[in-house]
Amino acid sequence: MTGRDVYLVGSVPMASARDVFREVSAALGDRLRWLPDGETADRLDWVAGLEGLFAEHPAFEPSGRAFRIHATAPPRMRRVLKAGVKPGDVDFGNLGYADHAIASYAEFARQQAAGTIPARVKFQVDLVPAHSVLWLFVEDELHAALDPVYNAAVKRELARIAAAIPRDKLAIQFDVASAVFARLERNETSPYGRDRAESTETFARILIDFGDAVPDGVDLLFHFCYGDSNHRHVVEPTDMGDMVAMANRIDAGLSRRVQLFHMPVPRDREDDAYFAPLKDLRVRAGTEICLGLVHYTDGVEGTLRRMAAARRHCKQFLIGTECGFGRRPPETIPRLLGIHAEVAAVG
To answer: Which domains does the chain have, with CATH numbers?
Structure first.
């Protein structure tokens, strides 16, 4: 089959995982290699559904300071530890990722056995490291101390998922979002580093640790992102340089191969300057790149322009959107899937 394969980042605003599997498979079929459950219901807005974990946690109390990831994003009340509570005392318990994944995989397996989902497609589960979650819900001074505590809970979820789902049917995606790339773009000081270089090293070390925790036989995927709150990035990327540097550092540090790195392309970037850093990509053979250059708002025509620009710098790549579909009105999803299908066939 000529053309390109399609990659889905995560959320799809449909009623259930059953609907996501059926509708996405019908639209994209053999263009797919991995298929998420759509992160439906209260998971559509990415990690926003975890707010209750902090709001109801006995170790935390409101700080009294609201936080916005950008000027038009909704405010969130961050939290601090109650008096006398130490970071090591915090237990995050069940995060829910494994519960959802195990239930959704049962439906995935039924539809794949029935031929609805193509045989080669693997079930994709998206996990979010602490730096993105804590950024929204906890004050900065606690990030460094709580990061390993929360990530230990994520690893427990990963272990449960890998124990319950056949390895040759499973892919794990780690979301590396604006908590990372906005800080790198701004070259700012944060609990993770004094500047871009130190922060890149810290974040890469965390992600390498996660990647090496993914068992052999399970596909490993990384989704890079600059945010999608109110359909806005937290900060606009200058070019793909920070993403290429992060991919190189992760790949060099891992004891295993990454199956795919996903990198977003803003709608207005069809210039050579944006894609030029791809010449410095140094990942091992067999690792693939997905460029998130499909945009609903300018459809097939705009997507083809961005693909033409990308091909001048990277011949082989999958296509996808910049982020998940979860913040998009459900009635737009059939056309968005249709855009993917049309441009994938062009190649």
So the answer is: 17-346 (3.20.20.210)
Q: Are 93 and 52 in contact (CB under 8 A)?
A: no
Residue spans of beta strands (DSSP E) within 157-231:
170-176, 219-224
294-326 per-position pLDDT tens digit: 999 999 999 999 999 999 999 999 999 999 998
Let me know the angle formed at the C-alpha of 303 by 298 and 304, rounded to the nearest 5 degrees.
Answer: 125
CB 262 within 8 A of CB 222: yes
Q: Which residues contact 301 (CB under 8 A, 6 or more apart)?
A: none
Q: How far apart are CA 80 and CA 130, in angstroms?
A: 15
> Residue 141's pLDDT band (boundaries 50, 70, 90)?
very high
Burial class (CB in 10 A: 0-12, 13-18, 19+), 284: exposed
Give the rounded distance of the alpha carbon of 192 from its chain centre.
Answer: 20
Q: List the structure tokens of 196.
A: 């871009």
